[in-house]
Design a protein that fits this description.
The protein is mainly beta. Among the domains are: about 55 residues, no CATH class; about 45 residues, no CATH class. It contains two helices and 32 strands. A hairpin with a 6-residue loop joins strand 7 and strand 8. The chain is rod-shaped and about 165 Å long. The termini are far apart. The structure holds 2-acetamido-2-deoxy-beta-D-glucopyranose (6 copies). One 2-acetamido-2-deoxy-beta-D-glucopyranose binds next to loops.
Length: about 375
């Protein structure tokens, strides 16, 4: 019994000593009845030539490492990239940065990573080498020029949604407007027509104040400036909506048109402040465009304004009476050959009052006296 045990122990020692692998890159492991199994060393993968004729333990790809195998026939995928932010490429030939990272993996174990995480809210495919491969999770956003964070693309506004697959946080600018990349508010969307502006509800563009028409979305403006000296509110579409700044004036039909005082006013329209158009004296009327008080006509066609302050209607020269405000004239014409001054109320008509008629009158008076005598 004792001798048999001793032989077995001796045998074991001899076998152990001779437990070497033919494959230089394998190490003997478990003992089975046919002998020791040779496992590929750390840093190698495959099947040793000891296990399979023609097999070999191959070196892991550059930048990767494997632990000493515990099974035969390990795959290349047992070789793990030294840079934790990288993984083997599809061909298992080299390490590349993992998805959502970019750069060049550090091949040295224990060193700093060569793969940088993409900025927040962005994603990249495995193997990306530059930050420009990190694309924003919000499809209507793009990395800002400094590549630090995502901003809404040109012609959008808002705050990008960082979560992939979520609703976009970037809203398209209203039709006919454009914005630069990075715009956050709809007010950054400016009308393509430079003479138009966004409506208060931001729904569309309309012509700016002092313009009229329909804005265009490209090319020449569809908004025409109001005629010189006239103004309009935002959103006017027709030239007639361009008005004179003087509330008592309107555009005339001249070419180019200009502002003139309305009918029954006279004066020179102002461009700001108080009206320059003064109401005609009570009971008188004027045509549009009248500039002086005396353009204000009396309703009695045979009367005119006098120069009193305030002026009043009086019968024209060679008429007498009280002017009427309607109907037939209250001014009666002097008999033929007789005259009366303007403003005559009673019949003061007489022969023209010249020095020659004066002398003639005296002469005829004297003649009459002589005749009577
Ligand atoms: C073992 O690996 C080295 C490289 O590390 C290689 O040159 C050699 O050929 C390998 N040996 C065998 C037997 O495959
Ligand atoms: C962006 O999308 C990527 C890929 O889907 C995802 O891994 C990442 O977490 C997303 N970013 C955020 C902030 O949700
Ligand atoms: C407005 O202008 C922007 C920038 O030029 C352009 O991208 C957009 O297509 C224009 N909008 C329309 C409706 O033409
Ligand atoms: C806007 O109006 C001004 C003044 O009428 C004009 O000079 C300019 O050309 C207009 N803008 C465009 C884009 O047509
Ligand atoms: C202009 O007209 C308005 C109403 O027509 C009137 O209230 C205002 O006093 C006028 N201005 C002048 C200076 O006459
Ligand atoms: C004004 O006088 C003329 C000439 O006497 C007369 O023909 C005319 O009818 C008068 N006008 C009115 C409105 O009565």
């Amino acid at each position: 019994m004792k001798a048999t045990s001793l032989i077995l122990i001796l045998l074991a020692v001899i076998v152990k000593v001779s437990a070497t692998c033919t494959d230089a890159n394998a190490t003997a492991g478990a003992f089975i009845d046919t002998g020791f199994i040779c496992y590929c060393n750390a840093g190698y993968y495959g099947t040793s030539t000891d296990s399979v004729s023609g097999g070999s333990c191959q070196k892991c790809p550059t930048g990767t490492n494997s632990v000493l195998a515990t099974t035969t026939g390990t795959l290349v995928t047992s070789c793990i990239c030294n840079d934790a932010n990288s993984a083997l490429n599809n061909g298992n030939t080299a390490c590349q940065c993992k998805a959502n990272f970019f750069g060049t993996p550090n091949p040295t174990a224990g060193g700093a990573t060569g793969c940088t995480a993409c900025p927040t809210g962005t994603a990249s495919t495995a193997g990306s080498t530059a930050i420009t491969s990190c694309s924003c999770n919000d499809t209507n956003a793009a990395l800002k020029a400094d590549n630090i964070y995502c901003v809404c693309k040109a012609n959008f506004y808002g705050t990008p949604n960082p979560t992939a697959g979520g609703a976009t946080g970037c809203t398209a600018c209203p039709t006919g407007t454009a914005s630069t990349a990075g715009s956050t508010a709809v007010t950054s969307c400016s009308c393509n027509d430079t003479n138009a502006t966004l409506k208060a509800d931001n729904s569309a563009c309309f012509c700016k104040a002092n313009f009229y028409g329909t804005p265009t979305t490209f090319g020449a403006s569809g908004c025409t400036a109001c005629p010189a000296g006239t103004i309009s509110a935002d959103g006017q579409t027709d030239k007639s909506q361009c008005t004179c700044p003087d509330v008592n004036a309107s555009l005339n039909s001249a070419t180019p048109p200009s502002c003139q005082c309305n009918a029954n006013f006279y004066g020179t329209p102002t461009t700001s402040g108080a009206s320059g158009c003064i109401t005609c004296p009570t009971g008188t009327t004027s045509a549009a465009g009248s500039t002086t008080k005396y353009s204000c006509a009396c309703p009695d066609t045979n009367a005119s304004l006098n120069f009193d302050i305030p002026p009043v209607c009086q019968c024209n020269p060679n008429f007498y009476g009280i002017p009427t405000t309607s109907g037939a004239s209250g001014c009666t014409i002097c008999p033929l050959g007789q005259t009366a001054p303007a403003g005559s109320v009673t019949n003061v008509c007489g022969a023209a009052f010249t020095s020659s008629t004066y002398i003639l009158s005296i002469v005829s008076l004297l003649f009459s006296i002589v005749m009577l005598i």
